[in-house]
Amino acid sequence: MxxxxxxxxxxxxxxxxxxxxxxxxxxxxxETSVMGKIHERVVVLDDTSGEAMYRLIMSEDVRTVICxxxxxxxxxxxxxxxxxxxxxxxxxxxxxxxxxxxxxxxPGQNLY
Amino acid sequence: MPFSDISPxxxxxxxxxxxxxxxxxxxxxxxxxNKDGVLQAVNKKYELLTGVVGxxxxxxxxxxxxxxxxxxxxxxxxxxxxxxxxxxxxxxxxNRSREKIFVHLTLAPLIDEKGAIRGVxxxxxxxxDNALDQVPVHxxxxxxxxxxxxxxxKIFAMTPSIAQTDSPVLITGETGTGKDMLAExxxxxxxxxxxFIKVNCGALPEDLLESEFFGHAKNAFPGADMPKPGRxxxxxxxxxxxxxxxxxxxxxxxxxxxxxxxxxVYPVGSTRGARxxxxxxxxxxxxxxxxVRQKLFRQDLLFRLNVIRLNLPPLRERxxxxxxxxxxxxxxxxxxxxxxxxxxxxxVDTLLKSYTFPGNIRELRxxxxxxxSFCDSGIVSMRHLxxxxxxxxxxxxxxxxxxxxxxxxGGAVGSTPPERWEDxxxxxxxxxxxxxxGKKQQAADLLGWGRSTLWRKMKHFGIE
Lengths: 112, 464
Known about the structure:
The structure holds 2 protein chains of 2 kinds. Chain A has helices at 50-60, 72-80, 93-101; strands at residues 2-9, 12-13, 22-30, 36-44, 64-66, 84-86. By secondary structure, chain A is α/β, with parallel strands linked by helices. In chain A, β1 and β2 (12-13) form a beta hairpin. Chain A is globular. Chain B folds into 4 domains: 8-128, Beta-Lactamase, CATH 3.30.450; 150-312, Rossmann fold (3-Layer(aba) Sandwich); 318-397, Helicase, Ruva Protein, domain 3 (Orthogonal Bundle), CATH 1.10.8.60; 419-464, Homeodomain-like (Arc Repressor Mutant, subunit A, Orthogonal Bundle). In chain B, the strands form 5 sheets. In chain B, strands 2-1-5-4-3 form a 5-stranded antiparallel sheet. A 5-stranded parallel sheet of chain B has the order 7-8-11-6-12. In chain B, α7 (150-163) packs parallel to α8, α14 crosses α16 and α19 crosses α20 (451-461). The longest helix of chain B has 16 residues, at 321-336.
């Protein structure tokens, strides 16, 4: 099972990783390369910070982070911890998730 | 804003090309958006500050382009704007290079003749009141290393490609030149996911070094109650940085050489090897070639380490970098100690420029930390410098006291200074005595010396 984290601002990817209060945590169980089960959950954080987000990543055992703006320090830290980070992504969260699951999402993509 | 008859200009400015020309010459980032915050135009400075490509963000809501903390709080564009007055706030943005930039953000509504908001003008200007925000961490350098002299810029330019290889790196340079920081920066720039492990060969007893490097098996020697992995295994997937490599005993040099050949670690007391993937970097402030000639360092290990060699120049050979680093550390420490220190007096500037800096950047940093913490006026003057500089210990024999016009860009001490250090001291004492009306205690306080030191120096210089 793969877990993906997307910080939210309404229904869009939040402009800033460290300032999002709502976070979409998606669990994906792939049965074949094109089929699988998806379970989505929105977590509301009490405080907004890179640290709070990292605690959530650790507790949820997230492996992939999809976000828009992220500071270099946090980006490097997450990469060193072995996480996949796709940053500088803009668009509605559903479209972004779909694009990721189809293997088409890359850093810097704008899906508006 | 007062206007004369500008109707011919207005015709030009109402055309997109005219408006774009006007916006693009502005030194601040400007975005024009409709009342819902959808971007209609951005100028070149806005593109530069945020890192966006203008045409790609048109039609997007401003918060997704700007990535500002204010957008997520109480931005009037995101909520219903009632006051209809311009608003300036201090905010921060994260640009496309993942840098956080502190800015002054101004939002001004565009109001039509009926008083309704038709759009919003957004202006962003990098903030300059917080000294730490301005510390040029990335401006001229690599991570925390800064410099613009040709020698260090060459190293900074080479580092990204060095980081992408797994070849051993040997960093040489005098003490305090930043060898450790450079090694860590190369590791951080690389794709290696493992840790950066540092071993200081000079700081560990010779008996423990082998076990520190290669680990040991249980009961390998008296007291080895538990097996120990050793730094080479701890650094698996990362980098092992061996500092003061010249202090590594000869028998361990052989063992390290063997490891570099097959990448297998044999712990002390064990015959079972463990394969690891570790990049070796080493540093030394001794001439390793000389040690090879004296048979204190293995030539084959030097050849093995010497695949990529970086030599960090001493500070005294880095020319204007002294001034750059001076200002850099001044900003850091005035922010840390919450003190407003404008700069350095002419004498201090001259002294620092002429000083040999045997401790290099580390010495300069400590010196400025000392000066800022003791500075009670807006300018760092001679009396705020550490005593050893004023007493002459570690000082160059001769010192420039006037602005160094004839001095070479290299900042070498050997240039022809017009005045001796003694003369500068004599002048300082006389100036202090004049300022205090001949009162020795006050003059000593002004100079930051004890009364007896002043008396002794006055006697030495024949001042009565």
